[in-house]
Amino acid sequence: MTHPRPNAALRTVLTAVLSLAFGQLAHAADAARLGGDLTPGGAEKAANKDGSIPAWSGNEVQHSGWAYGKLRSDHFKYKADKPVITIAASNADKHADKLSAGQLAMLKQVKGYRMDVYPSRRTCGVPDFVADNTKKNVGTAKIGADGWSLKEAWVPGYPFPMPANGAEAMWNAKMRYRGLGVDYKNVVTSVSPRKGGTEWIRAGQEFTAYMPWGAKGSTLLSKLPQIEYYAYFAYTSPTALAGQALAISYFLDQPGSETFYYFPGQRRVRRMPTYSYDSPQIGMENQYTLDEPFVFNGSIDRFDWKLVGKKELYIPYNAFGAYDFSAKFEDIAKADFIEPGHRRYELHRVWVIEAAVKQGMRHTAPKRTFYLDEDSWNIVLADDYDAQGKLAKMREGFLIPVYETGTCDVSAFVQHNLTEGRSCYTSENLRAISDR
After folding, report:
1. What is the per-residue pLDDT across 75-84, written as a single tens digit (0 to 9) for each?
2. What is the pTM of this model?
């Protein structure tokens, strides 16, 4: 007896069913690794080969006695740590394989610049509900057909704990859990003097941001407003800037931003549709653009993003000294760099992401390299290159555990203009608005 051969339509259906089944099995296997050989956020749990990066054992927990308004560094478990390596111009080449191009340039070009390296402490984790959502995102989170917008994910959580490309990794950084928002009551952004000058720009500000996807629980992103975050920002000093304010919205699925700016001299609010990307920030003498805060800020649509891989790097970590509001400004911010005693570096694994401006697009930094901490997905380093391919700027984000949220975050950061020899430093007294 002979059996009829299945027709083409049936074969297609069977193939689709089998592909779906195998895909679901693969996603389940990947998800099972989270909390297994990987941390809940997707980092390698294990130590590195020589043990200089320890195994991950969980996040830094809030210590009794700490409350908002007290120095976080006073309550850090490892506050007694001492540097194990000091890197300066004299030994920079010896450590070059664990430095970014920008770090190496600073060590070689700027007199007196040094990096004090401390024991590595893996203090970054996430709350249980963020871990659960991150696991659910394996096979669920989606990038749009445009190649850059975030279309679906369970939130709050990392959309792509095992990223397949650079755009996915950048969305992990942008969607890192920070609670419902952040509130900076006393921000100071400073720009160092022009070469040969002595006059600093020191701008006082208030900044509040709200992330509608940050509420405790588990929600599909598609059920929420397609907003990355809303923010309100106002200058309190100097006199030339005081009273200026803006309200800005960044989107998950639209390029650019929506910005409304208040000019007190005109006593009017103006819509500023092009105040985004590499637009210079008002009052900062072209030293600081809209997409440079927090090491990177805003839409990712103007670049192609390449996931290069992982490497071990000396990065700012547990860097509480940059947030020391008890110190005098002049004791932290020097003309050429942040005082080394207020910077802490540790050896950690990072994801390396290369960004190249898309054909037909423009940007003052058409090539950029970003370094993302594997444990928290925070962007901790960036190198910017100009149109001639020359290294032009480097940024460092000072990562710390945020006790209120059970995660780590970067808010304070420094940027060095390697072409003009000027620095921009933003420091905040961070308060996270968390309902956890």
Report:
1. 999 999 999 9
2. 0.93
